[in-house]
Amino acid sequence: MPLLLHNWRDIMQHWQAALDFADSEALPSLLDLLQKLAHDLRTTLSPLYPSLLHTLLSYLPRPLPASVLTSLLATLASLFRYLLIPSIHLDLLHQTWFSFHAALPKCNHEVQRAAAEVWASVLRRLRTKARDRVLALMAAELDGVEDASAWILIFACKSVSQTLHTTSPSIIVPIFDHYLSSATPPSTSSNPEGPALQPPQTNAYCSHTSLCRSGTVLADRRLSW
Fold it and tell me: How many Å apart are CA 114 and CA 68, to the nearest integer?
């Protein structure tokens, strides 16, 4: 372990160089190695976190074999668990979500759904303040990731026993709070000829409605998969 700590930068440079020339057969082994390095080094790897995140997310939209995609998602989960969640910097959390948000629309629906499960695990592990901030970001930036965001909520609220997870209220409430603060209240009119015309709903309003409907389903009944 002391040798690993002393030489971690050189090790990561060699890892990156090997990844640049790796084919689909070598990728799982290299990704598995990164998982183990993240587990052992933890926040020691924090200076490389942005570049590692960018590298891993660049593979997400590619047509990968199922085994490679599974390794990639597991590596992302390890990166979030050992580097992102222990960090107290909300800016790093924001940057991560924006990068994740940018990558998701480039992926097909099946990959989006699988990636949503990874981000859902992040939501569960975050402290309340950080979780509320991320949920507000998700609700404010839904363009292109409406379905993926709904899946994130579903996976975050799903428990092993097929019922709502104990963290569900703390996940759903900030979404509704953001929705209610963004909704346009219905206008009233004393015009005897009829009600005033309502302004058209914006894309953001419709997206909030779609996301919150998913939350309503989760809050009103047990989940069945």
Answer: 13
Of 152, 68, 64, residue with least CA distance to 104: 152
C-alpha 33/C-alpha 165 separation (Å) is: 32
Q: Euclidean distance between the first and final Cα of the chain, in Å?
A: 43
The sign of the torsion formed by the CA atoms of 154, 160, 163, 168 equals negative
Residue keyed to tokens 């599974």: 70
3-state DSSP assignment of residue 158: strand
Take residue 183 and report the two structure tokens written for it: 């909704």
Q: pTM of the full predicted structure?
A: 0.80
Contact 34, 22 (CB under 8 A): no
For residues 161 and 96, what is the distance between their CA atoms, to the nearest angstrom?
30
Strand partners, 158: 164
How many whole angstroms separate alpha carbon 153 and alpha carbon 104? 15
Model confidence over 133-163: pLDDT tens digits? 999 889 888 889 999 999 999 999 988 877 8
